[in-house]
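Example 3.2
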Amino acid sequence: MDKITLPSTATRLIKPRPPPPPPPIVAPKTPTATTPNAGLLFREKLLYLSSLNVNPHKALNLNPAIRSAPLSTLLSVEKCLLSMGLPRRSIGRILDMHPSLLTAHPDLHLYPVLDFLLNEVPLPFPHISPSIVRCPRLLVSPISSQLRPALAFLRSLGFALDSHSSLLLVYDVERSLLRKIRFLQGLGFSEEEVRTMVVRSPATLTYSVEGNLGPKADYFLAQMKGDLEELNRFPQYFSFSLEQKIKPRHQMLAQYGLRLPLSKMLKVSDAEFTDTLLDLRLEKLEKMERRHT
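Structure, written as tokens:
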């Protein structure tokens, strides 16, 4: 039998070395504004904004969240607006006006507005795009506290909203719409007459009382000696410039002792008005000559 040789004491005391510890796990660095990767991503966002004709400096000042938002967030907003039928050039103008939309969550902030316009107003889908293009504030107005109360009030006046009048939804009921209704009633119009006027000319409810309705009503009643019945028939009077059209044309007529219905005085071009004024002057001269013969 072979003799088993035991290791010497010195050999037994030598213990194997443990393996070296694994290197610590280091999380990948989050790109910062100073890393090349972050700089590249940021530049991509700036180029994207420029491609939409959005002013990057203005957008970043008004919505700093754009700096940290991924490009995919901005793209999802454009995709959402495209799905509403908006052309890309209009999307750029809207986003430049309201940069907060650039980081909006489509499912939380944009599609609910689309649903409201389609199903509660309701607007046909082809009217959605022109409505938003005409009044981008629709996209940033809260539904429960602004759009829905305005819709209820406008319906009470007899409105059936379309792509032209849907902009009235962004006007506050108490501070704006009701104030203008009360102003018109204060002129002497009945409640029913006011309803007829604003439905016939919805833009009347978009004008300022101090800067538009008041001065024009004062001029019509005090200087033109107009009657409310004519103003009721032609509420579009308030849409014409007081200084550039109403006053000059009225003064030219008054100079020769002439009058015209509001619609004929204001709706025609300058050349047509001049021709009409000349015809009226000749007609007046002919009548005077016949009286003296």
